[in-house]
Amino acid sequence: MADDDPIWEDAPDSPSSSSFFDRDRHIRFLEMMYQLLPSPYQSQEINRLTLAYFVVAGLDILYALDRIDKEAVIHWVLSLQAHPKNEVELNNGQFYGFHGSRSSQYHLTDDRVHEQVAIPNGSHLASTYCALAILKTVGYDLSLVDFKSLSRSMRNLQQPDGSFMPIHIGAETDLRFVFCAAAICSMLKNWSGMDREKAKDYIISCQSYDGGFGLIPGSESHGGATYCAVASLRLMGFIDKDILSKNASSCTINVPLLLYWSLQRQAQDGGFQGRTNKPADTCYAFWVGGVLRILGADKFIDEGGLRGFLLTCQSEYGGFSKFPGSLPDLYHSYYGFCAFSLLKERDLNALCVELGITAIAAIGL
Amino acid sequence: MEVGLLGGGGDGLFHIIYFRLRGGGGGNNLEKVIYAKKLEKIILDEPTSGLDSTTAFRLVETLAVEKGKTVPSSQIVMDREAPDQRPPIPISKRTEWADVTPIPQDDGPNPVVAIAYTDEFRETMDYFRAVYLADERSPRALQLTTEAIHLNAGNYTVWQFRRLILDTLCVDLHEELDFVGLLARDNTKNYQIWHHRRWVAEKLGTNATSNELQFTEEIFSEDAKNYHAWSHRQWVLQALGGWEDELAYCDKLLQEDIFNNSAWNQRYFVVTKSPVLGGLEAMRDSEVAYAVKAILAKPENESPWRYLRGLYKDEVQSLVKDPRVASVCLDVLMNKRDYVHALNMVLDLLINGYQPSKTLENSIDALCLDSVLSDSGLAERVCSVLQVVDPIRANYWKWRKSGVTVEGPNGKELAG
Question: Which PANTHER family does the UniProt entry name for this protein (chain A) (predicted)?
């Protein structure tokens, strides 16, 4: 920007924007994030691809993808891909996906390139999901790149109980990574990377006595986990579109209980809570709202109430915060935008809920 | 008076107003963007963290000048940095690291969502890269991972390398527990910390059991619903044992807060999985009594209702046949308050073949509007009342009502 163009003369002198979805302000917010994230974000350095996903997919929802340099984004994302040097490396049990950032990716300097040194491979399932989501969002043709190593090596991450580890060197396993795996396979149109039946069994084992899903078997029902479960089942083809009209016993999960649990998450203040008896939080409007959309039950949501709550979390600086009155952050902002898309806010792109990107991006037009 | 907050804050929530330095020449390329607001007063919260002194000085100067447009510079208030936040000695100036060449991060020409790294962060990670690639598993490398973790507790590469070092150096893992414990308190929602804790506990084996249970209880005393801590506790019980007092612990938490759904979930976990209790069937009777008592204390509390339903998970007919279930619904309905969950439970019973008593019918009819009383079945009337008293879910109850009419009260569990 030119020096004689002080930003504050551009900003609308409006009062706190609590009565309408302030699309312009949100676009500006994402543009700032796209340019530079403030230092407190360095603690999320390892997940930079995820932060990029929030920005790029967010701008896509807001119909403002023209604000980014698509070529630069593609170039940067592809540079984070891990490639095995040869067939031997491909079969060494590691996962060849995408790194979340340079901080887990290492290059040998030129003078060492001839050494027989194994370059550490820290590629991560969630980063891989974000990478592919970004590429699809900016319209990159995924068939242009060889993803065979990715699909083949993804199997190394699936556990005997059907769950997924995010990295081959060892980490927690839970429903989040089952979702990442399913979404990756769906976007690549290639399911050789996972055993779907086993994954389904694991998901079923995560359904709690109250109908929601926990992150691991035995855990408390949680909005985010429930989204991962239901979205995965939809992606893998285990949930039909008109599931509500079908006989409950024909389903692999207890749908009526799930439906009731999900609807019960809408609290008196209109927002969605992540767990029973917890305060409402912006992001669950997507996690749980998304579940209801997949089930075809979003018609049962009190949309006016939800909208009202979300607007109290809308920041005058752009973006959304977790609770009313807090400062906004990128994560809650992105899911706030998603929530408004689900509410069919005008001038926003529709979502492909189970993939976590816009419908247009999912189709690949 | 409007106040804008600039910079600072390291708890993951970022303050989104940031600032651009105007004026060319000198300094580094660091740019932060001032948000457009007419601010009357700006409080600079740790404004110079992450900036070298030249840039920091220029920042203040710039703000004073720019602010002259809207606010007199005298209105700029600088927070004094807390003493323990003085930056540590740069690694490049520490003699024990003199032999190591740091490896800078190659971000490439067009990094997306670039982060404004502080000098400290950048340097620490540059040195980490060096020891990581050299696979140096030394005490100084261990210390370096400590510093790197403090800056970026989510970096699993650092954690993984730390584990390799701990193994190689045969470090006393009890000290490691202390380290992780302190970290976990400051970063309660970080997955890597908890994973590391589990790794340590696994190595220590059953010696660690009571310590681990104790640790999660300390976390719960500040946040009784911490999801990670609950997962950890469940893992400890299943991997290391310690079930004996678990049901009592759940009860203790529920006495403190009967609305704590995490504690209810844990109770279910114990009842179904504990090797010392006999399983769900054996425990069902006493647990139904427990749930009923909690319901009567606070009928508006969703947790014990779901728990009660869960005790009969796949045996709906047993739920229907247990007189205490209908009985607690009736008790709540007779009080004519906080009966939404009771009505839902009655609906569940009815569509699964429960034959209501006249008393129950009357208690529901007492809640109905006159127009509703003409609805043919009791189940429909329940739905009609729910449409009114649970307006957020009015459309859902309307749909349930139509489902009841179509399938009939003795039909398959259409939407139960």
Answer: GERANYLGERANYL TRANSFERASE TYPE BETA SUBUNIT (PTHR11774), GERANYLGERANYL TRANSFERASE TYPE-1 SUBUNIT BETA (PTHR11774:SF4)
pLDDT per residue over A29-41, tens digit each? Answer: 999 999 888 888 8
Catalytic residue from among B37, B189, B293, B298? B189
Give the E-state strand segments of chain A in sequence order: 351-352, 357-358
Side-chain half-sphere CA neighbours of B338 within 13 A: 13
Say yes or no to pLDDT of A168 above 80.
yes
pTM attached to this predicted model: 0.86
Q: Tokens at residue B85, please?
A: 């936040």
Beta bridge partners of A213: A207
Q: Are A84 and A96 in contact (CB under 8 A)?
A: yes
Residue A278: which residues within 8 A CB-CB, separation 6 or more?
A: B225, B261
Mutate to test the interface with B, among A7, A10, A42 (most CBs of B within 10 A): A42
Q: Which residue has the tokens 């740069």?
A: B90
Q: Based on C-alpha coordinates, what's the Rg of chain A?
A: 21
Contact B114 A278 (CB under 8 A): no
A36, A214, A275 ranked by CB distance to B114: nearest: A36
Measured in residues, chain B has a length of 416
- E strand or H helix at B126, and its extent? helix B119-134
CB within 8 A of B14, min separation 6: which ones? A37, A38, A40, A41, A327, A329, A330
Which residues are CB-neighbours of B371 under 8 A, at least 6 positions away? Answer: none
| Cα–chain center distance at A358 | 11
Q: Which residues of A touch B156 (CB under 8 A)?
A: 46, 104, 122, 124, 167, 169, 171
CA dihedral (B255, B256, B257, B261) in degrees, to 10, reads -70
B69 catalytic per annotation: no
Give yes or no for a contact between A306 and A270, defined as CB atoms under 8 angstroms apart: yes
Q: Closest by alpha carbon to A57, among A117, A115, A129, A8?
A: A129
Three-class HEC string of B49-71: CCCCHHHHHHHHHHHHHHHCCCC
Distance, CA of A74 to CA of A78 (rounded, Å): 6
Tens digits of pLDDT across chain B (416 residues)? 223 334 333 222 223 333 333 223 323 323 333 333 333 334 444 444 444 444 444 455 555 444 433 333 333 444 434 444 556 788 888 888 999 999 888 777 677 888 888 889 999 999 999 999 899 999 999 999 999 999 889 898 999 999 999 999 998 899 899 899 888 888 878 899 999 999 999 999 988 899 999 999 999 999 999 999 999 999 999 999 999 999 999 999 999 999 999 999 999 999 999 999 999 999 999 999 999 999 999 999 999 999 999 999 889 999 999 999 999 999 999 999 999 999 999 999 999 999 999 999 999 999 887 776 676 799 999 999 999 999 999 999 999 999 876 544 444 444 44
- Strand blocks (E) in B17-98: 41-44, 77-78
Best to test chain B binding among A210, A222, A323 (most B CBs inside 10 Å) = A210
In contact, A355 and A362? CB cutoff 8 Å? yes
